[in-house]
Amino acid sequence: MQLGMIGLGRMGGNMTKRLEERGHDMKTFDPQVESTAKTLEELRDQLAAPRSFWMMVPAGKITEDTFQALLTLAEQGDVIVDGGNSNFHDSQRRYADAQAKGIHFVDAGVSGGVWGLEVGYCLMVGGDDAAVAQVEPVFRDLAPEDGYAHVGAAGAGHFTKMVHNGIEYGLMQAYAEGFEVMKASEFDLDLHEIAGIWRYGSVVRSWLLELLHAAFEVDGSELEKIRGYVQDSGEGRWTIAEAIAEDVPVPVITAALYARFASRQDESFAAKVNAALRNQFGGHAVEAAKQST
User: Fold this and answer.
1) What's this model's pTM, rounded to 2 decimal places?
2) How far are the Cα atoms of 25, 116, 201, 282 from residue 63, in angstroms, in the given order?
3) Which strands make up the sheet holding 122-126, listed edge to edge?
4) Based on the number of CB atoms within 10 Å of its own CB, is 224 exposed (0-12), middle (13-18) or buried (19 or more)?
5) 55, 67 contact by CB (below 8 A)
6) Parallel, antiparallel, or unpaired: how do β-strands 52-55 and 79-82 relate?
7) For the segment 38-66, what is each residue's pLDDT rounded down to a tens digit?
8) C-alpha–C-alpha distance, residues 199 and 28, integer Å
9) Which sign, positive or negative, has the C-alpha torsion 286, 222, 173, 180?
10) d(C-alpha 58, C-alpha 64), whole Å
11) Are 121 and 142 in contact (CB under 8 A)?
């Protein structure tokens, strides 16, 4: 089928290649790289009606600006797919805005990262049946076998991807803590070797563990080249906020998010307060602050 891909970064570029390899007619727009169109208007004109547009741009202002621009350019019967990590509340609003103009909106949660070109992308899709059906050939060719599902109404795709990423936070933090315990132990453990054997037969084997093994292979078991500074892109926060709204306890995901916050501190002020209190009530020694140079 024919598809207009907007955004050719690490994800959008590889998704375009995968679809082209499977025979789809891809038209593209990205002002930063070579594309078939120089403007969204030109992209629209390169597509036959009813058109299918796929936004693969960062969540937030860029997605909103692109969506609003497409609303003015698209025609009744066209489909706009948001494949970024948008908040599901925004997706529900965009669905309503598009519907009011006779335009379809589909939210697609996409997981697979830079490996998706080779192994495929897991797709969690939300939207009306007719809209999803219009783009389904693309969904099926992007995903590996059994890796795509129409999970529900508008917003359900991004809601499911949000929870997926919250779970990912917890899994990553568990691996991180376990390997730190082994690194600090009295035994001279080969962490690269252990990550390797755990990939086979172990109950903790996973793709994340395979990636950790690969990281040790590239950067060494000490990960000397990597700073322990961990960002977050928002989905963990949204998962926790939704859990609070639903009165659902998510202690593991919450702790994992806070661990990411802690990783960004050069020195914790809270730890300073703790040290000062111990000194005040118990006379415990404190260490002098490092002097800046």
Assistant:
1) 0.92
2) 23, 22, 42, 55
3) 25-29, 2-6, 52-55, 79-82, 104-111, 122-126, 148-152
4) exposed
5) yes
6) parallel
7) 999 999 999 999 999 999 999 999 999 99
8) 39
9) negative
10) 10
11) yes
Residue with tokens 């899994």: 171
Q: Is the peptide bond before 137 cis (omega within 30 degrees of 0)?
A: no
Q: Is 12 exposed, middle or buried (0-12, 13-18, 19+ CB in 10 A)?
A: buried
Which tens digit of pLDDT belongs to each residue from 150-206?
Answer: 999 999 999 999 999 999 999 999 999 999 999 999 999 999 999 999 999 999 999
Residue 252 CB burial class (10 angstroms; 0-12, 13-18, ≥19): middle
Active site residues: 161, 168
CB 232 within 8 A of CB 169: yes
Joined together, the tokens standing for residue 92 give 């529900």
Terminal alpha carbon distance of the chain: 61
Q: In DSSP terms, which residues pair with 54 in a beta bridge? A: 5, 81
The residues that bridge with 53 in the sheet, in sequence order, are 4, 80
From CA 100, how far away is CA 268, in angstroms rounded?
Answer: 50
Q: Chain centroid to CA 188: how far?
A: 35
Number of other residues whose CB lies within 10 A of the CB of residue 113: 14
Q: Give the DSSP letter string of the chain.
A: -EEEEE--SHHHHHHHHHHHHTT-EEEEE-TTS--S-SSHHHHHHHSPSSPEEEE-S-TTHHHHHHHHHHHHH--TT-EEEE-S---HHHHHHHHHHHHTTT-EEEEEEEE-GGGHHHH--EEEEES-HHHHHHHHHHHHHHSPTT-EEEEESTTHHHHHHHHHHHHHHHHHHHHHHHHHHHHHSSS---HHHHHHHTTSS-TT--HHHHHHHHHHHHHTTTTTT--------SHHHHHHHHHHHTT---HHHHHHHHHHHHHT-SS-HHHHHHHHHHHHHH----PPPPPP-
CA–CA distance, 36 with 5 (Å, rounded to integer): 10
Evaluate whether 237 touches 162 at the Cβ level (below 8 Å). Answer: no
